[in-house]
C-alpha cells in the first residue's frame, strides 16, 4: 500500500483529527509522529485521525506509544487501535457483526436487526461512521474498507485460532461447513453464514444447531436442513436463507424473537401452516 508525502499526509490527517487543514497549536509534532508511525497510509491516517479527535495531549502520547510498538507493515494492528478505543462492548459487537455479515446491507434494516439483539445500533453505527470504521453510501448501504473488514474478522479468528466452534462468528464457508457437517457447534457461536451454490443444495442436519443456544444471526444459501427445526436457537433474530427449500416455515421452529426473515428464491407457498404468535416486529422479504 502506497504512502502519501508529508504535506498531503498532514492535511488529510488534520481534517480528521482537528476538522481543519493543519494541526492545532501544541499538536504539530505529535501529528507528525502519528503520521510517521502510520507509514503515511491514507486509511490509517483517516481512522487514527478520527479516533484522536478531541483527545488531550496525554491521550495522544499514549496512542503514540502503542503505534511505536507496531511494525509499519502490520496495518491491521495499527487500525485495531481505533477498534480497541471504542466506548464499550456494544459498539465492538456492532462493528464485528457488520464486518462479518452486514456489509452491503441497508443501514435501516441492520439497525432494526441489531436493535433486536439489544445493541442500540443507531448510536453505535453513528460512532463507527465518526471513527471512519464504517461508511454509508448514497443508497444507504453499509460499506467498509477491505482492510478494516479483514481487521474485524481477524479479531474474531484470533479469539480461537484452532477451535472453530469456539469463535463467536463464522463467515468463511469452509469453517461454517466444517462445524455444521461435524455437528460441533457450541454456545460460543453468535453468528454463522454459509453461502453455497443454490443450484446444488448441500444437505445438513438441524441437529448441527442443537448446542448453538446463543445464535443470533444465521445466513444460509444453497443449504437444505433435514430434521426437527426445534434445534435452531431461540435467540435467533435474523434468518436470511436464499433458496429456502420448504413450502412453509415449520411450526416447530421457534420464531418469537425473530426480527427479520429473508427468504429469497424460496419455494414458500404458505408462510405458516398453523398460526404463530410473534412478539417482535418482523420484516418479511420474500423474493421468488
Automatic annotation (TrEMBL):
Residue span, Disease resistance protein Roq1-like winged-helix domain: 90-160
Keyword field: Repeat
GO BP field: defense response
Acyltransferase keyword on record: no
GO molecular function: ADP binding
InterPro entries referenced in this protein's UniProt entry, alphabetically: Apaf_helical, Disease_R_plants, LRR_dom_sf, P-loop_NTPase, WH_DNA-bd_sf, WHD_ROQ1-like
Top-level taxon of the source organism: Eukaryota
The UniProt record lists the keyword Repeat: yes
Pfam families registered for this protein in UniProt: WHD_ROQ1 (PF23282)
Protein name per UniProt: TMV resistance protein N
Amino acid at each position: 500500500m502506497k504512502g502519501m508525502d508529508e504535506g498531503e499526509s498532514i492535511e488529510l490527517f488534520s481534517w480528521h483529527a482537528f476538522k481543519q487543514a493543519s494541526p492545532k497549536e501544541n499538536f504539530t509534532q505529535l501529528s507528525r509522529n502519528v503520521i510517521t508511525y502510520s507509514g503515511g497510509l491514507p486509511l490509517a491516517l483517516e481512522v487514527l485521525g478520527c479516533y484522536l479527535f478531541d483527545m488531550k495531549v496525554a491521550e495522544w502520547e499514549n496512542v503514540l506509544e502503542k503505534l511505536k510498538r507496531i511494525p509499519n507493515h502490520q496495518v491491521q494492528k495499527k487500525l485495531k487501535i481505533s477498534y480497541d478505543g471504542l466506548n464499550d462492548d456494544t459498539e465492538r459487537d456492532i462493528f464485528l457483526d457488520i464486518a462479518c455479515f452486514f456489509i452491503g446491507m441497508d443501514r435501516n434494516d441492520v439497525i432494526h436487526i441489531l436493535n433486536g439483539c439489544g445493541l442500540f445500533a443507531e448510536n453505535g453505527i453513528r460512532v463507527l461512521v465518526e471513527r471512519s470504521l464504517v461508511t454509508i453510501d448514497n443508497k444507504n448501504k453499509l460499506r467498509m474498507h477491505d482492510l478494516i473488514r479483514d481487521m474485524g474478522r481477524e479479531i474474531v479468528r484470533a479469539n480461537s485460532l484452532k477451535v472453530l466452534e469456539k469463535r463467536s462468528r463464522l463467515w468463511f464457508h469452509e469453517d461454517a461447513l466444517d462445524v455444521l457437517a461435524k455437528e460441533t457447534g457450541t454456545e460460543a457461536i453468535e453468528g454463522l453464514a454459509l453461502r453455497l451454490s443454490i443450484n446444488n443444495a448441500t444437505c445438513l442436519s438441524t441437529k448441527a444447531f442443537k448446542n448453538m443456544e446463543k445464535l443470533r444471526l444465521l445466513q444460509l444459501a444453497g443449504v437444505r436442513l433435514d430434521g426437527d427445526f426445534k434445534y435452531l436457537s431461540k435467540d435467533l433474530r435474523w434468518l436470511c436463507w436464499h433458496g429456502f427449500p420448504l413450502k412453509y416455515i415449520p411450526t416447530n421452529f421457534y420464531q418469537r424473537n425473530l426480527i427479520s426473515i429473508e427468504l429469497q428464491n424460496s419455494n414458500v407457498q404458505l408462510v405458516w401452516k398453523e398460526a404463530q404468535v410473534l412478539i417482535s416486529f418482523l420484516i418479511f422479504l420474500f423474493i421468488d
